[in-house]
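Changelog-adjacent note: as of this version, every example in the card shows the full chain rather than a window. The one below runs 290 residues end to end.
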Amino acid sequence: MAAGGALSTLALTSCQATASANTASEASATAAASAAASAGATTGTGTTATSTSASPKAAVASASSASPTLSGKTVVLDPGHNGGDESHTAQINQLVPMGFGKYKTCDTTGTNADDGYAEHQFNLQVATSVENLLEQRGIKVIMTRTNDTGVGPCVDVRAAIGNNAHADAAVSIHGDGFDASGHGFQIIQAAKSVGGTANDARSNTLSEAMHTTFLSESGLTPSTYIGTDGYEVRSDLAGLNLSTVPKVLVECGNMKNPGDVALMESPAGRDRIASAIADGIIAFLEQGSK
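Full-length structure tokens:
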């Protein structure tokens, strides 16, 4: 995420309209993003709010039967960035609300490994595997994008997709781009969200569940270069600030570190990371059902 499926026309229009109206209220801009997300989103298992064509689902080693505890739960997966962002800088550089009266750019291009392996590609590959694992447990999954050829969606629209779905949990999936000396994962949550203190507490519970499964399953250590023991709290991430549902952002390793990126580029390594994310979500959902 260091640098900062085609985007539906409605979602991109939301970003452009919001950016061109900086004198308008943040509430109006956020409402527009919510309307765009509602119009673009579809219902049902494994649906998406933004793509025009679904990418093939990656094979995942283990399968589990649907659980009555998880039946009816909805999870939004948000693979960060998109493959078309780099060639559409005018669109992604427009300003959208990030919460609490502040604005930031619609999206960023993301980072990449030194060999060119792109973060946006990694994010979607892992998210698709997580989608498969959650669907096997009877969870409805909504993806913010399902291909890697589009633009965005804008960060405020990504948040609105989870809000409009009344998701039980939402997770943004990223890879980081620090220098090669640092390694490890980060579980990031908002310093505060528009969802209020109760929602922030639930997001904290989700971050703890995710941290536990990353420690035991991912093959990654907690970040050695930022945050504290793999946790980080930030106030500048619109997708977290604007969320009214429990949400975290996972940095699944440092793509500039040789050890981390070897895991991230390996199909088996990505499956380990996907399992850690899916199991963290499931643990959180089952804890909330008790």
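Structural remarks: The chain has nine helices and nine strands.
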